[in-house]
Amino acid sequence: LPVQSAITQPRPGAAVPAGELTVKGYAWSGGGREVVRVDVSLDGGRTWRVARLGGERPVPGRAWAWALWELQAPVA
């Protein structure tokens, strides 16, 4: 199963101030496979940034839960 992900912050349609933005979310895979990377695009897929994965890392082959991720990005 390809990695699936959801953004939890900011909320859809939220107004965000110019400057530094924190984008948060969660990701999961399938078959007990660990999420090792989450890429985030803030411009419709033209460029991508690698998010920081949080929390404890699972035992290899035993990753049955979602992983939290976070990205700090500049906003015009």
TrEMBL record:
<dbReference type="Pfam" id="PF03404">
    <property type="entry name" value="Mo-co_dimer"/>
</dbReference>
<dbReference type="GO" id="GO:0006790">
    <property type="term" value="P:sulfur compound metabolic process"/>
</dbReference>
<dbReference type="InterPro" id="IPR008335">
    <property type="entry name" value="Mopterin_OxRdtase_euk"/>
</dbReference>
<dbReference type="GO" id="GO:0008482">
    <property type="term" value="F:sulfite oxidase activity"/>
</dbReference>
<protein>
    <submittedName>
        <fullName>SUOX oxidase</fullName>
    </submittedName>
</protein>
<dbReference type="GO" id="GO:0020037">
    <property type="term" value="F:heme binding"/>
</dbReference>
<dbReference type="GO" id="GO:0043546">
    <property type="term" value="F:molybdopterin cofactor binding"/>
</dbReference>
<dbReference type="InterPro" id="IPR005066">
    <property type="entry name" value="MoCF_OxRdtse_dimer"/>
</dbReference>
<dbReference type="GO" id="GO:0005739">
    <property type="term" value="C:mitochondrion"/>
</dbReference>
<dbReference type="InterPro" id="IPR014756">
    <property type="entry name" value="Ig_E-set"/>
</dbReference>
<keyword id="KW-0560">Oxidoreductase</keyword>
<keyword id="KW-0479">Metal-binding</keyword>
<feature type="domain" description="Moybdenum cofactor oxidoreductase dimerisation">
    <location>
        <begin position="1"/>
        <end position="75"/>
    </location>
</feature>
<dbReference type="GO" id="GO:0030151">
    <property type="term" value="F:molybdenum ion binding"/>
</dbReference>
<keyword id="KW-0500">Molybdenum</keyword>
